[in-house]
Every structure is written in C-alpha cells, then in structure tokens.
Amino acid sequence: QVQLVESGGGLVQPGGSLRLSCAASGSNFRFVAMAWYRQAPGKQRELVAAITSAGSSNYADSVKGRFSISRDNAKNTVYLQMNSLKPEDTAVYYCKVSIIRDYWGQGTQVTVSS
Q: How far is the C-alpha of 99 from the C-alpha of 1, rounded, in Å?
C-alpha cells in the first residue's frame, strides 16, 4: 500500500525558508514522477512543482526562482526547498505520486506571517 508522509511545515516570517520532505513507502518510486501541490483556504489545490524519474522539474510561475524540488531515490523521498517565502505561500502542502491512480499525503501546513 502506497503511503506518503509529509513533514517540515511550520510558521515562518516573510523572506524566510522552509524545507519540506515527503517520505514514500509501499512501492518502487524510482521510476515515478513526484509532485508537490498546495491548497490555500478557499482556493483550489494547485501544482507547485513536479520532478520526473530522470530529475527534470517544472514549477508554477508563482514559485519559480524561489522554490526547488529534488528527490533522493535511495530514500524514496522528495523535497521542496522554499526560499524567500511570501504570505501568499501560506497553504497546506501535499505530496502526490501517480501509480495507476493518484496517491496523496496528509499534508503539512505552511504559514508565512510576521
């Protein structure tokens, strides 16, 4: 059974940084694309960043140049390094993989506020 567990969220001041982690288990993720999404209150869930099995990545325009996605296949873990955080980055951040169907983690709250 595929399980995804996010961690690393918290409260940070504008301009600060956080690093999110998503540990995956229950399958071989080496050949699977992984992604981070976020959902702010009253808004739809949106793609933040994705990374292919080969390491190619893409980002939402709103986070380009500030966020960086990476993966460690030996640890079945995907990371999201978030720098220069803004209040509008406040959301619950979710990890997703697609293996026949979509699997989601439980989410981790990121709050950017002074």
A: 11
Q: What backbone phi and psi angles, to 5 degrees, belong to 62?
A: -70, -15
Name the residue among 52, 60, 105 with its Cα closest to residue 86: 60
* Cβ atoms within 10 Å of 63's Cβ, excluding its own: 22
Regions of the chain with pLDDT less than 50: none
Specify the DSSP element, H or E, that contains 7. strand 3-7
Between CA 106 and CA 95 the distance in angstroms is 8
Beta strands, E only, 42-107: 46-51, 57-59, 67-72, 77-82, 91-99, 101-104
Q: 69 pairs with which residues across the strands? A: 80
